[in-house]
């Protein structure tokens, strides 16, 4: 989930057509291919005690590009603060540091520059002062679907904890790979500005650009990425879910904890193995969760690898500094457990405060609180669609695996945006 971007269209024929077009453009010298490299520029911390944020290896979405600072009024309705459930009961102080981290990026945009400067200048940051600041400088807008309804879906994600080693052994035999040297990024934004596909992933074979290797090809032929092994882990199902989450922690045999984060992907579309199990009649829809899928794998080891390979998407990782406060999201800042949210940046400004009204996983107990939109996800598409970041504890893993709740959302926008 962390810092993932969508590169290949789900329609394979369309991908082939674009690839053919690219070959023509490349041969004409009108477009170039490049292999992604990690940016060297880092974001300055807010204070001497704050951990510096480092951008993902695959650059985060340019804040000036998300929604292009233009809010779509068709999907937003201005409301009063009293409309927000439990607004007076939630403690916004718990999301305040996350918002200030967002301002490291938001302050680059004219829409947010003034309010971020004002937020950074606040000396008293108790619950009352922060709530008063938000009510004074922001207007809540309820997010609506295209048909005017106001209910959507929220799921959960977390930072997995796996056991691993820096060396291969019969116990630790499943590798996490760093980004391959032959993985190419083809930028489409300038050549095809009207397409939703801003870039493609692929590889060169002679003079041809081909889709990069699938999950099955990578796992069935270890020689393809030989030498790019970062760490070896003991459980292939845990590794699969680590790739879905996009970031995690590995406990080595000597007790050292290594933090890893998203570096890149192979460009293939994501397929939900949960949906596949439902379609095949292996699990009923109401039962599907991360825990249920893992249990199914333990009970059906002969079918497991074929199931995993139906999701052709593959994630590459990099090692992160040990002192990071949390995993790095698409905004380029550490995520905050229980207060960071992954959203669709085509519909919600990345970095914006979001008020969320939902329920605790598998219960009717209200879960209403201020969140900050700091991440994106390959499966997070739509106006009222979000992913709740739970953290890295065992409880976080349990809650994230169970969460599939109805939700309502309000985006808080600076009052100057109304002018």
Explain the overall architecture.
It is a single chain. By secondary structure, this protein is an alpha+beta fold. The chain has helices at 12-27, 93-106, 110-120, 127-137, 215-220, 236-245, 273-279, 290-299, 301-309, 394-402; strands spanning 33-34, 76-78, 138-143, 152-157, 161-165, 174-177, 184-187, 199-205, 208-210, 229-233, 247-252, 257-265, 315-320, 340-342, 353-359, 366-375, 385-389, 404-414. A six-stranded mixed β-barrel has the order 4-17-14-16-15-18. Strands 6-10-5-11-12-13 form a six-stranded mixed β-sheet, with helices on one face. The two termini are 35 Å apart. It comes from Nitrosomonas stercoris. One of its GO terms (cellular component) is outer membrane.
Blueprint of the fold:
Layout: H1 12-27, E1 33-34, E2 76-78, H2 93-106, H3 110-120, H4 127-137, E3 138-143, E4 152-157, E5 161-165, E6 174-177, E7 184-187, E8 199-205, E9 208-210, H5 215-220, E10 229-233, H6 236-245, E11 247-252, E12 257-265, H7 273-279, H8 290-299, H9 301-309, E13 315-320, E14 340-342, E15 353-359, E16 366-375, E17 385-389, H10 394-402, E18 404-414
Parallel strand pairs: 4-17, 5-11, 14-16
Antiparallel strand pairs: 1-7, 2-3, 3-18, 4-18, 5-10, 6-10, 7-8, 8-9, 11-12, 12-13, 14-17, 15-16, 15-18
């Amino acid at each position: 989930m962390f810092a993932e971007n969508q590169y290949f269209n789900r329609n394979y024929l369309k991908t082939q057509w674009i690839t053919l077009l690219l070959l023509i453009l490349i041969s004409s010298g009108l477009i170039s291919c490049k292999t992604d490299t990690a940016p060297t520029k880092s974001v300055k911390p807010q204070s001497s005690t704050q951990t510096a944020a480092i951008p993902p290896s695959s650059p985060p979405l340019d804040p000036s590009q998300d929604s292009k600072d233009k809010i779509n009024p068709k999907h937003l309705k201005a409301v009063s603060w009293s409309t927000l459930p439990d607004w007076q009961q939630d403690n916004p102080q718990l999301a305040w540091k996350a918002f200030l981290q967002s301002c490291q990026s938001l302050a680059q945009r004219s829409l947010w520059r003034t309010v971020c400067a004002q937020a950074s200048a606040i000396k008293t940051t108790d619950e009352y002062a922060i709530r008063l600041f938000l009510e004074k400088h922001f207007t809540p807008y309820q997010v609506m679907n295209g048909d005017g309804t106001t209910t959507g879906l929220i799921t959960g994600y977390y930072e997995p904890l796996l056991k691993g080693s820096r060396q291969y052994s019969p116990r630790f035999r499943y590798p996490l790979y760093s980004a391959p040297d032959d993985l190419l990024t083809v930028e489409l934004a300038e050549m095809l500005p009207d397409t939703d596909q801003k870039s493609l992933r692929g590889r060169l074979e002679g003079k041809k650009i081909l889709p990069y290797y699938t999950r099955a090809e990578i796992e069935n032929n270890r020689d393809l990425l030989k030498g790019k092994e970062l760490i070896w882990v003991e459980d292939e199902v845990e590794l699969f879910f680590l790739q879905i989450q996009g970031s995690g922690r590995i406990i080595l045999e000597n007790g050292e904890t290594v933090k890893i984060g998203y570096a890149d992907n192979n460009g293939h579309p994501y397929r939900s193995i949960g949906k596949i199990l439902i379609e095949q009649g292996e699990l009923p829809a109401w039962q599907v969760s991360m825990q249920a899928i893992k249990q199914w794998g333990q009970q059906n080891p002969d079918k497991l690898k074929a199931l995993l390979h139906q999701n052709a998407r593959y994630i590459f990782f990099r090692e992160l500094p040990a002192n990071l406060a949390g995993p790095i999201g698409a905004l380029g800042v550490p995520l905050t457990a229980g207060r960071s949210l992954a959203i669709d940046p085509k519909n919600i400004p990345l970095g914006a405060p979001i008020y969320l009204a939902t329920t605790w996983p598998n219960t009717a107990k209200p879960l209403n609180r201020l969140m900050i939109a700091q991440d994106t996800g390959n499966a997070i598409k739509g106006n009222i669609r979000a992913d709740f970041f739970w953290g890295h504890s065992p409880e976080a893993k349990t809650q994230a695996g169970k969460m599939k709740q109805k939700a309502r959302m309000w985006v808080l926008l600076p009052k100057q945006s109304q002018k």
